[in-house]
Amino acid sequence: METSKEQDRKQAGKTGKKRSWLVAGSVILYLAAFGKNVLGLLKLSKISGPLISMLLTAGAYAMVYPLEFSVGLVAMILIHELGHLWAAKRKGLPVSAPFFIPFVGAFIALKRSPRDAVTEAYIALGGPLLGTLGAVFAFALGIWTREPAFLVAAYLGFFLNLINLLPIHPLDGGRIVTAVTRWLWLVGLVAGLAVIIYLRSLLFLIIWLMFAWHLGSRYVWKKQPKVYVLPFTTERSVRELAESGAMLPGAEHRRELRFDTFSDLDGQQKVVVYWDALGVEKTLVMPQQSLIDRVYVTRIEYAPREAPERMIISGQVHYREHENDRYYAVPAAARWKFGIAYGGLAALLIGMMIAVQRFVNGFAV
User: Fold this and answer.
1) What pLDDT, in 10s, does the model give residues 178-191?
2) What is the DSSP string of 288-333?
């Protein structure tokens, strides 16, 4: 015979599942009916896109898990990503708002790469640091209110931030240890296998395989660096060129161009392209620190065709990635600081997970 408490617990579980499905179903029905309006909102402001992605993610989780679990999970992910955003802003790097992907997580996009490993580690540490504080606050609310939803959110927060500290790229731990020692990446390979076995997560398996491939190609078989192409266009006045006596090239003209490269005070690499005969001098911003192989003209067009007034020059910059040794040149003091912060935060998260479990067990009794 079941006790009345057990029956009430089962009934509450059924109610929670129905409520979760109701919320998720409502979100799907709304999107089906007003999908165009939702897409319009994405263009209205920088916050509408991330907000809608967050609501959709919460709805997707609610289709599988109880509602309080789904809301708590999304809230902890949001706080974590806001930590990255805060850290990036402190370093003066432009960054996008958090964007959520159901059953994957969330991310913020850096619009400019960090200049060194210290900056990368600082931004990476901001996520689990603020995420841990958010989970501690949820735990405190759970102790005060005895509300299970806060305790669930707290445990999720501690667990997610601890997993993110694994020294595996692109997880936060893999980025933090670039300022400590890259030898910890080997620890990540071994620990990652243990986590895969424990979680049985296909997503984590994919992340681990990508990380293993990256390490192998970088340090074991050392494949040739990939060549990238940066297209560009510039224009010249046909009348001005004719008045200067310059020879006008034909549409099939191809040639390599002279170039100079430099980095500005913000560490952004730039390339200045010259075509001396036509008075061309164009500055291009490179997407990352690179080795420039060549710059050349790919096409010449005249517009309009009937009475040309402009000459449109199209070209390409061929460049390769390269590992900048200075990027990983971290002062010893900074290595110790990040190492202590990294290890201390991991130990704190493990301790807080144990504390939540003990409190829940005592609360259940």
Assistant:
1) 999 989 999 988 88
2) SSEEEEEEEEEEEEEESSSS--EEEEEEEEEEEE---GGGG---HH
